[in-house]
Amino acid sequence: MVALTRPLGGLALVALAALVLSLALGSVSLSPGEILAVLRGQGGPLAQTLILELRLPRSLSAFAVGGLLAVAGALMQVLLRNPLADPYVLGLSGGASVGALAAMLAGVGGLVVTGGAFAGALLSTLLVFGLAHGRGGWTPARLLLTGVVVAAGWGAVITLMLAVTPADRLPGMLYWLMGDLAYARAPWPPLALLLAVCLLVVPLGRSLNVLARGPLQAAALGVSVRRLEWGIYLGASALTAMAVTSAGSIGFVGLVVPHMLRLLLGNDQRLILPACALAGGSLLLLADTLARTVIAPEQLPVGVITALLGVPTFLYLLYRSQ
C-alpha cells in the first residue's frame, strides 16, 4: 500500500503546485499571499474576480479534462494491450466532436451539447466494435485498425460540417476544435466523473491487471472478459465525451501520459489510473497556463500547446524504448 500511495502523494503535490501557478499567472499576476487571502474570503474585488470567477473555474476544468483524457487513454491501452492506443486513434474523440458540433450547428447548447458528444462517442463505439467483429470475434489489432478508419471518417464528417457552417459561427467552432478552455465555467461535473472513475479502480484493479496480460489468461482466472471489455470501452467513451464537451479536441494527453507513467511506475492499474488522473490534470493545467500567458492578453488554443509538448515528448519516449 505504501508503494502505491507514495507516487500518488508526489503527483498530488505537483498538481497542487500547478494549480497555484495557474491562479497566480496571467495578464495580471497575483502573489501566493493574495491568492490565499481570496480563498479565505478576503482580498480586493479585482483579485476576487480574477480568481473566483475567471481563473479557478478554468483551472479546475483544465485539471478535470486532462485527467479524463489521460485515464481514458490508459483504459484504451489496457483494452487493446497497445501503448499507442488512445481515444483519438480509436475514433471516440471524433464521434464526440461530431455530436457536439452538430448541437452547436443546430444553435443549442448546455446539456444538449454534452448529450450530443456522448451520443457521438457511443455511436463510434458501436461502429468500431461492430465493424471489427469477425467470425472469431474482434482482436486488438483488428479493433485498432477499425478505429483508425472510423476516426478518419469522423474527420471527413467534421470537415463537411465546417464547410456548411455559417460564416458567423465558423471561427468559434474552429477554435473549439483546436481545444479551448476559455468558456469552461462548470468544472464540477467532469471533476465528479473523474473522481468516480478513480474510486472504481480499487475493486477493478486486479481484473484490469489480469486483462492487460491477455483475454485467455483473464478468462482462466475467472474474469468476465467481454463484460469488462465493454465496460472499459463505454467508460472511455463517457470520459472522452465529457472532456470533448468541456474543452473541445485536445490531443496527446491520453497518449503520452499513460505511456510515460508506465515507464516510470510499472503496469499496476491500481496505481497507473489514479496517477494518470493527477499527471494528466497537471499537464493540461500547465499547458493552459502557458496558453494564457505566452502572448497575454491574447490566448492560444490549449490543444496547440499540448501538441507542441506532446510530439517531442512522445518521440523521445520512442527513442528511449529502443
Automatic annotation (TrEMBL):
Transmembrane annotation, as ranges: 60-80, 87-105, 111-131, 143-167, 187-209, 230-257, 269-287, 299-319
UniProt xrefs under InterPro entries: ABC_BtuC-like, ABC_transptr_permease_BtuC
Membrane topology: Multi-pass membrane protein
GO CC terms in record: plasma membrane
Taxonomy, superkingdom: Bacteria
One Pfam family from the record: FecCD
UniProt entry keywords in alphabetical sequence: Cell membrane, Membrane, Transmembrane, Transmembrane helix, Transport
Gene Ontology molecular-function annotations: transmembrane transporter activity
Subcellular location: Cell membrane
GO terms for biological process, alphabetical: cobalamin transport
Sequence similarity: Belongs to the binding-protein-dependent transport system permease family. FecCD subfamily.
Protein name: Iron ABC transporter
Organism field: Bisbaumannia pacifica
